[in-house]
Design goal:
The chain is α+β, with helices and mostly antiparallel strands. The protein is built from five helices and eleven strands; from the N terminus they run H-H-H-E-E-E-E-E-H-E-E-E-H-E-E-E. Strands 4, 5, 6, 7, 8, 9 and 10 form a seven-stranded antiparallel sheet that branches.
Length: about 200
């Protein structure tokens, strides 16, 4: 089966980056400029750029200038309850009503108003390494243990924007619920981790 044109162009751009034509952090020419250079329609270059962003070769949001990505710092997640060791930015603290899923996780009625905090966790290079949304009822309390479920999801527009990725990019989603000494949920979180920047290691 013949390889799609945009994939062949993406392979050629990867080759040119590897050869040193563009260095990490350096912007690439615009889609229009490269479309003219490759003698293709600008839509073909849009597909090329989207593919290169999804695979971590380029960084930058849609309709904005893109740069050659620095190799991601791949981190190993072994302790889902450990504090983030680097910079964190709180981006949203608006209360939210409990959805059916949140109500089940926290053991409260649906539409109960929950305290909410969205936190963007940055790696040492300043890239967003994790997005965490946390919900709890009333006063925030300490916990004794936690449960967690891991799955892969496609990022929404808001999540993708926070992580500097494209909408529908696959990411790990960890649904973590913290429990008190009686096993009662005290808070629950959704942790979103870019798949190209993390590996998950479970401890027995």
């Amino acid at each position: 089966m013949p390889v799609a044109l945009y994939r062949r162009i993406a392979d050629d751009i990867r080759r040119r980056i590897a050869a040193g034509e563009w260095s990490p952090g350096q912007p690439l020419p615009s889609r229009a400029e490269l479309a003219a250079a490759y003698h293709v329609h600008e839509q073909t270059m849009r597909l090329t750029y989207d593919l290169l962003r999804r695979t971590g070769v380029l960084e930058g949001e849609e309709r904005k200038r893109v740069i050659v990505a620095h190799p991601p710092a791949v981190r190993t997640l072994t302790d889902l309850d450990a504090p983030w060791p680097y910079t964190c930015d709180v981006t949203d603290t608006r209360p939210q009503p409990a959805t059916e899923e949140l109500a089940e996780r926290l053991g409260v009625p649906v539409r109960t108003m929950l305290q909410h905090e969205a936190v963007e966790c940055l790696d040492p290079g300043g890239l967003s390494g994790m997005l965490a949304n946390t919900w709890w009822q009333g006063r925030r309390r300490g916990h004794a243990t936690f449960t967690a479920e891991l799955e892969t999801v496609r990022l929404t527009q808001e999540q993708a924007h926070a992580l500097g990725l494209l909408v529908d990019t696959l990411a790990y989603r960890v649904a973590r619920t913290r429990l008190d000494t009686h096993g009662t949920p005290v808070e629950t979180s959704d942790l979103f981790l870019p798949m190209d920047r993390w590996r998950i290691r479970l401890k027995g």
